Structure formats: C-alpha cells, structure tokens
Amino acid sequence: MKVMEAVRRANRPGPPEDSVRLRVLIVGAATVGLLACRAEGEVSWWLTIAAIGLLATGMAFSHATRARPVAAVKPALAFMAIVAFVWFFTELRAHPFTDIGGVEGLLAALFAWIQVTHAFDVPARRDLSFSLAGSAGLIAVAGAQAIDLGFGLYVVVWGALSLGALFAMWGSAGGGAPTGRGAPTVVVTVVMVGLVALLALPAPQVAGNISFPSDLGSAVAVVNPAGLAGDGGRPSEPSRPGTSIGRTRVGGYLGFATHLDTALRGSLGDQLVMRVRAQRPSYWVGETFDTWTGQSWLTTRRVPQAVATGSPFTLPLPDGAAIGGTDDLQTFYVVAPNPNLVFHADSAHVVWFPADTLFVQPDGAILSPVALGPGTVYTVESIVSSPTPEELRATSSIDGGLSGAQQRQALQLPHPYPHVQALAEAITARAPTTYDKVQALIAWMGSHTRYSTDIPPLPSGADAVDQFLFSTRVGFCEQISTSLAVMLRSIGIPAREAAGYVPGPYDPITDLYEVQAKDAHAWVQVWFPTYGWQSFDPTANVPLANPSPGATLVGDATHALGRVGLVPIGLMVAAAAAIGLAGRAWRRRPRSWAEKVTRRIERAGRRAGRERRPSETLREYAAVLDARRAGAPDEHRAGAPDEHRADGADRRRAATSASWSSLAWALEQDAYSATPIGPEARRHILRLSAQWRVPRRLHRPAPYRAVVDDGRPERVGAP
Amino acid sequence: MHPVRSVTPFAVTVAVLVGWGIVAHDSGSGWVQVLGEAVGAAVVVGLFGPAVALARAGVECRANPSDDTAGSPVGLTVTASQRVRVQGTDPPGPVGFVGPGRDPDSPCTVVIVPSRHGVVDSVTVDVASAAPFGLLWWSRRVVLALPTPLHVAPRLGRSHPTRPLIDDGAGDGARRVAAVIGEARGARPYRPGDSRQWVHWPTTAHTGGLMVREMEGPVRVPATVTVSLPADPDAAESVTEDALATVVALLSKGTPVTLVTTERLGTVSGPVEDRRRAGRRLARAVAPTSAPLDDPGGLSVVFGGSDRRGGRP
User: Fold this and answer.
1) Which residue in chain B has the smallest CA separation from A549?
2) pLDDT, tens digit, for every residue of B56-99?
3) A220-547 architecture in CATH?
4) Where are the domains of chain A?
5) pTM score > 0.90 for this model?
6) Cβ separation of B30 and A206 shorter than 8 Å?
7) Cα separation of B259 and A392, whole Å?
8) Interface test with A, best of B27, B52, B84, B87 (most A CBs within 10 A)
9) Over the stretch A279-300, which tens digit does the pLDDT of each residue have?
10) How far is B128 from chain A (nearest CA, A)?
C-alpha cells in the first residue's frame, strides 16, 4: 500500500504553471533537438516541420487549459503513445538492423512523437520538466550520429535554451524569484563542472558488438573494380600517379596508386580526408609494396580475391599474417574523394561495407568496387597483433610462416647494395636479434638524417637509397622508410613498404581521429615469425597510448605553448607587467599640482627617514622638515611665516622663500583663499619642491630637558 | 540544512547519469558523452546549488506588530539576501516568499498565526531555497528574533459577572443590587444641556419646575479582576480568554478595572484602560509558582486557582 500511495502521490497533479516564458523556452529546446535530428538525417523534413508545429500547438493548448485540464485528453494521448510504440516495434521487425546505428532513426522519430503527444498535457511545472528532459533525449539521439564539431552549434543553442528554461523554473517555483540575478555565475559553474567531467571521464570506446555503420555516400563506380583506381576524372582524387615534371598538386597522396615513386610528392595540406573512430590509434594501411626498383616501389601483380558475400565481409587472412591478436573495431567516415582503397588497421578480418563485393589482395589490401566519395562510411574489424619488444626479440630466426617465394619477394632488391649492406652491418653489428637490428637502424637514421619535404630532385638514373644515405641524408617519409627497408633487406631481414595514413589528431569531443591529407605516410613493415608483419616508423612520431580527452587537450595546449618559445612568452609577460604597472601608476597619478607638491614633500621626508604621521597636517610636517634642514630637533619647530595676509604679493613672496613650511602654507592658501596662486608661482613651487632635499638625521637627539614651573628642580634625562 | 526529499532525486539522478554514461561510452559517440556531461553538470548544480544559496541567505526580521490576538494571523516584515521560501513553524504559518524578487514592490511579509496567548520574542521558521534551477528544495530551521516583543492576547471567551457589592452601611441593611447603567433612578432639576427627551413631565407638574430623569451612571467603584493561571496550558488559555472577556465587558460599562496577574517578575496589579492593555497584561501572565492569588474582595472577579473560577456566588 505504501507503494500505491507513493505512486498516487507521484501522479498527483501539481499546481498549474502560469509562466509563458518557461513554455516558450522548452518549446525552443525541443525544436532545436528536432532540427538536430533532421541535420543528422535521422528524421525527414516533413516530420520535423509537423512535429515543431504540433509541439507549439500542444504547449499553447496545455497553457490554455492548465487550470481545467480536459478530461478526454489523457486517454487520447495514451492511445497515441501506444500507437507510437507499436509502430516502432513493427518497423524494427520489418527492417532488421545489424547495429544500433540503424535503430537511431526510428528512435528519433519515436522520441519526436512522444514529445509531441506529451506537449498536449503539460499543465504543471513538473510536466514541463519532463518535456525538457525529452528534448535532451532528442538531441542525444542526434548526437549519436554526429561526427564533426559543427554539431556543437546545436549543443550550444540547446544548452542556452535549456538553462534559460531551468532558470525560468526557479523563477516560477520561487514565487517570482529574479532569474537574471547570479545567472552568469551559475552558467560559469555549470560550464566548469562540465569541463571537469569532460577532462576526467575516459573517452568513449566503441563497443565491439553494437555499432557497425556503413553507408555508400557519394561513391563513384570504378571501371575496373578489382584494380586500384578511383579516377572519376576529378583532379582532387589522389589515386592517379604523378608526373615527373615539377611538383604535381593533386591535393592528395600520390602513393595511393599501383606504384610509389619516391621522387614525387604531392602538395599535402590540411584538407580533411576522413574521420576515424577506433578503439586504439593505428596506422590506417591502404596498400603495401614489395618490389623496389631503385626509384619506385611496385606491388607484385597478383589477382585479387573477390569476396562476394555482401556486408559484412569476412576476409581471408593476408599472407604472413600474425597468429592471434586482439580485435580492433574502426569506423571510417570519408570526407574527401578517395580511391577505392579500403583503409584499415593491420589484418582486416571483417568489413561492413555497403557493396556486394570486395576484392582482397594477398598482401591484405582491400579494394572496393566504388571509389569512396564524401559521406561514405564503412567499418572494419581488424586483428591487431601488438607484441612486446621482448616477444619480438624471442623470435630469433626467419623461418616458418612465409613461403619461399614470399620470402624471396620480401628480400628483393633490384641490384646489390654493397655500401648499403656494409653500412647496415656496421650499424647492427652489436644487435643480437632482428628486433634489435631494426631498432639500431631506426636510431641511426634518427641521428644521422634529417626530415624535410624540400629536397632536390633525384638525378636521372640515380638510386634513391644511395642518394639519401650517402649524399643528401635529407628526405621525407618515403626516402627514410625506403632506405630502412633496403638496409633491412640487404642484411636478410624481410621488409616491405606500406602506405596509408597515420591516425591524425584526436578530437576528444567527437571521439574521432581527424585524418588530413598531410597525414599520408609511408613506413616499413618487418616480418616476424608468429607475429607477422609489424610496422616500424622511422619518421613519424605517433603516440601509442589511447589518449584520454584531458591528456589530449593538455598535451595540445602544452605543445602549442611549446612552439611559441620562451622569448616571446617572456616578452609578453614583461609587456603585461609593464602595462599593469603603468595602469597602476596612472590611476595613482596626482590629480592636481598641489597634490604633486604634497607628494614631493612627503617623499623628501621619507628619504630623510621621517614619515608623515597620520595626525600631522602638511604644515606641521613641513615645519619638522625645516627643522631638520636647520639641524634642530624635530620637536623644535620653525615658526611659520605670517599666514594671515591674503594679498597675492605676500603669497608669492611666501612661495619663493626657501622653506618647506612656505610651500605648505602656499598650498593651503591656494586651496582655501578666494584668489588662487597664478601659474608662474605654481611652476616655481613645483621646481623648488623637486630640488630640495632634507638631510637625514646624523646626530642623536639632544637630551630631553624639561622645565617644570612648580618650584622643583629641573629634571634632565633621556626621553 | 537538508534537502526536502533526500533519497529519490539523488537516486534518480545517479541512475540516469550512470545509464547515460554507459550508453555513451559504449556507443563510442563523443557528442552523447559531452551532452551527458553537460546535463550532469546542470543537474549537479541544480541539486547542490540550493544548499549554497541557502547557506548564503541571511534572513532577518525587520519589523513586527506589537499586539495580536491568538488565532489571528500577524505579518512580520522579513528580509533576506536571497529569494527564499519561509514558513513559520513555531508559531505556525502559511508559506511565503521573501528576498529580492522580479517585482520590486512585492511584499516581504511572513505570516504567523499564534495559537496561544503569550509574549513572542522570536519565531522559528523553515527557510527553503531551490535556486538556481528549482530542481530540489533544501531547507533549514532558523530562529528569527523579533525586533519588538509580540504580545499575543487571548481570544474573547465567556464573560463572568462581578461579585455584587454588600454595603452594610446603607441603613436598612438591605443588599444593594447592582444597577444597570442607563436605567432611570430618579428625577432632578433641569440643567442647561440636558436633553428635552429626559424631561419627566409628571414630576415637573408635581414640583412646578422642569425636572428631568436622572440615569444610572456607571459604577464608579473599580472592579478587580484577579487571574491565577493554572499550570495546564489549555486550561490557562481558557481562563485568560474568560478573563479578557470579563474585563472587556466591564470596560464597556465604564467600570474601572484593576487587573491582578502574575508575571515572571511577580504579582502585578494595575488598572487597564482598554482591551489592548488588558490583552497585553494577560499575554504576559504566567501561572503563579506559589499559591493562587487571593481574592481582593470588593467588586471583583477571580479567575483561576484550585476551586475558584469566575465570580463568587
């Protein structure tokens, strides 16, 4: 019975809410939620417009009937809510979805429907608070699909409207409480608490079993689906091979082609290529190259295997893949036109791709039948092998896992490299294991080469590795990684060149890696028994730990600050301090010539070791200073000039006499007499006050000598 | 200081935020997590902000009436540095809001309804706030000192008649009956200023001079009302109500009344000229610590004591 009583008490209608502002703000917040859902493509335009209109109508109806709710409304609304749920589950059964992403559209429509029906029966403040909570649900459903920072505009507007509604709720509950009072402090507090939560909580992690989005976007059909192409005729696609004449500007990475010419490099800028949501940062591999010509890398021509099972595609393991590993789920949101390469972390195992067929090469490269245009979304589950250095060191010999042909291909060189081999052997003389040899070579390259994209062109007929290692020692990732691969091959370690993207900067709000064109990269893969092809990057500096939002933001801020340099920071701090001091001095400046003279008198006295006492007038203080100048004790004060004369001549005379008392007297007369001192006299006084000094006391004061007129003898003693 | 409802709001908040966090974290959507953090921040501020506002709210009674009657509402002028809800608990009263409001002319009055007579120096009120979002009310009990003591007079009870005077020096020894004020008791010669309606024609014809009726005037003999409150509060309340009613009735007849009560500092005996003063005297009355007050004799009414209540038969 207590439960029933509690339920009855919870459902007891509250007093009618009269605040129109509160209702308007809640309608606004819900409208923003609906528009956000529309912006993410979860609901249609007609549903959005109809929902907004009905929402406003329902709120107006509720306000009009708040004191006398219509009895028939509740049953009707309950019936409509039931209809909404029936529709939702019917749609769910009719269109089975493989992941939660497909359900979000239905959820958004359901939330909108419930929000609209609820709006017709919100007479009390408590009911309105439920509507406000419903708007939070709407924008959260929209946020689940958002992948860029532009969604933040909806969040900011919705947040402002919701906060306004909350303030209005207090204004109503508080019997007319003022809502503007203290609002900025409250808003700042909410923002600070939210920021603390953002920095402290761990970043979202994609669960391996609930979200596998895929969408075709604006894909372009490829002429030869089994081949690497993606040239839809648009210069912006990075899949075409470059030319040897000058720099080619294609806006993308030239390496995503059938060969990788180390002599060429495209103009790689900040253009956003794709966004990646992943459980951990990895190299997003596009393709690998195993044949070195001395200038370019090529891929051994092999017929790709077609996997025509439809999405999700379970791919065969590539040659030399690791035995075992951990699952890594990544979702790629393509932003810029891309070739028909399906980028992925190492050893893609399952791919959710919106196509009927995918083509897989033996080295693990995945080709799609369409070039990936903006809006394309696909998900890959990879098996990532992440052995520790000790585990790699334990794999001592190169046996097992690779066939003879594969092994030969992994050691292929176009011609002998005696100098390169000698250099590599010298560097790795003390490295006992393959892993140590690789690390030794990487360390040597880090200390003996420089990274630069501005390098002279490769002379005709020259070998790129010889040019880099023995001539220039300057290059970018292709030269550096190629030299490492050649050195490894020259000492019998299987290696190949890999091309793709580094993870890119991590956005802690969207939980996405923002891969830009300049993140295109080439690195080396070395084969280890059991663990397969392991990536080594002698050039890029990629963090391996999964960053938390707080660490990322702090790191970015520190990094940005570090680039500024100490000298500019010091100059800025000094400039700020100088401005502050100047402002302080300006505020404390004397407002009149009299105040200036007064301060000079006091300053002169301070320098002489005699502060002005709070009970002293300026004339008394000046008399003390005059006494010091005369060498008399402070208590023996010089008489003040005749101060009763009011004519200007006497004042001028007094002003020019050489005593502090005269100055003080002149200031008093100027302040209180009917005819102030003229400008010439003022200048004179100012000059005198700046020039005079008061000597410091150099002798002990004379013993106190008091004469008591009571017939008793004099008493002499120290004070 | 404590929240009005302590378990449900926090439990619901924690459950919602934890659920939201789990969904956001496992869905991998950063925006959902950001929204959850924003909502959580607002809810946390809304749940704990009232405690801060309440702690900073200084409530003070600035003015109050000096007199009131038990059972009648009385308004206290209360100021607060923040907008708060105030409700009297001792004495009880309805809910009111004080503090800065949207309407600058809104009254800042807290109404209390004393249920018994007495002198109220302070009132206990429940001060509550739900700022800044109105999500959860926090309240604390505050004792407000009144700038001036509030004398709560008893209600008007049942009036008791005075004991009739026994005047043995009247000659015939007959007991003098208390006259009703305004009743004609004789005739006298007309004096300028008398009303023409008072002329008594039979006596005028009999005497040959204009004679007017002479009315019974108020008894000039002061009445003494002695009040000894019993220890039981309810009985004391009843006694004071009857005493006040009696005093008011005597005063309305023009009888000077001397009220004898026991106050904290001792027995107080003095005239009361009007109801307000009588109410104040009775408000200050307390039960005597020793024997009930003695019957002063004469025209008097005695209230209270072990076997005395009202006038003597």
Assistant:
1) B30
2) 888 889 889 999 999 999 999 998 888 899 999 989 999 888 88
3) Roll (3.10)
4) 15-200, 220-547, 551-587, 593-715
5) no
6) no
7) 109
8) B27
9) 788 889 888 888 999 888 888 7
10) 10
